[in-house]
Amino acid sequence: MDPYAALRYKEFNIFLLVRFAMVFAWSMQFIVIEWQVYSLTKDPLSLGIIGLMEVIPAVSMALFAGHIVDQREKRNLLITCIAGFSVISLGLFLLSWPGLEESWESKTILYSIYALVFLGGFVRSFLGPTIFSLIALIVPKKIYPNAATWSSSTWQLASVLGPALAGFSISWIGVHWSMCVIFGFSLFALIFLFQIPRKPIMNPKIGEPVFQSLKDGLKFVFGNKAIFGALTLDMIAVLFGGAVALLPVYAQDILHVGSEGFGILRAAPAVGASITMLGSTRFPLHKNAGKKLLMAVFAFGVCIIVFGLSELFWLSVIALFLSGAVDGVSMIIRQTILQLKTPDNMRGRVASVNSMFVGSSNELGAFESGLAAKLLGTVTAVVFGGCMTLLTAGTTAIVSPSFRRLDLQKDIDEHEKED
């Protein structure tokens, strides 16, 4: 297969630029918020609350958002999402104004940040399903796996540079002007998105009652063993292996590496994942996908345990780098499963369920990590999460032989015949 097949489509290249700018801005913003909040509170639980504030609206609105995405034109809906994010970024920029800390109490600033993060959760509930649905309207079905790999690679590259720049920019220009950079990237994404024309709505059931639509979407996801198995496995692994939420604690209180070291730690997993994803464009992972996914999740758990126990900066960076590399395998396989096995008229709803299972588990994982760190101590909480990840992978391998035997080559061959 041509490793650059998807890149031969101009609209897909524009889409990648938009996605890069948005993920860069979002990941950088989350890091800057984490740093600011922990600096205000010095409480690891406050980091968990950031995740909780985003996950509550993201989960509560997810299914409804999926219904709307399947009913609406995707390009314009994505424009609305990015515009909403831009408004939130502007609000955080104003909240981080240096003079504000002198006139406002710390609690007032903290609660205002939480409120904007909460609003961001609503935006996020629409953003993921819209992006997932738009990809399928830009490239033909036969290159969905290649497009999914490049899209995920772009996501990871932005996830590398966003946190890394956040750590350095906090040190160089401070929190306030770092927020200004984030706002600029969101405007960049908004401008470029207008170069993609509007797309047809593929759902033949326009105007379908909401509850019937949601019922059909849930029935499809829970009835498809490959999709349900991949989502469940990744959700539990991310939920308990979410050590990255505690990185400010490690950077400031355990490893003592400051904001620049924090940026390196935060970027390390995404660097590993990016290398994996770029390699997968030449060495596809669709054969024996089930076994590869299980092994990747197991290895992820091992890396998290090593990171949790490490008191050496270089060892911590290596452990996080390797955790990202194996997590990249998991992400590629999951996205390929979703793209290949989801019909066009259900992409929004399936992507919404995916965001509930996997995307929101990042924030729930952040809350779980923050709460566990408060109750058990930071190191114990991280090691416990890694052990739960190992248990999840091992249990799934034993109780689900059909998932273990999952192979995606047949689905790819069928799509090639259709095109």
TrEMBL record:
Keywords: Cell membrane, Membrane, Transmembrane, Transmembrane helix, Transport. The chain crosses the membrane at residues 12-33, 45-65, 77-97, 109-138, 150-170, 176-196, 227-251, 263-281, 293-322, 375-399. Gene3D superfamilies: MFS general substrate transporter like domains. It is a multi-pass membrane protein. It is found in: Cell membrane. Signal peptide: none annotated. Its main location: membrane. This is MFS transporter. It comes from Flagellimonas okinawensis.
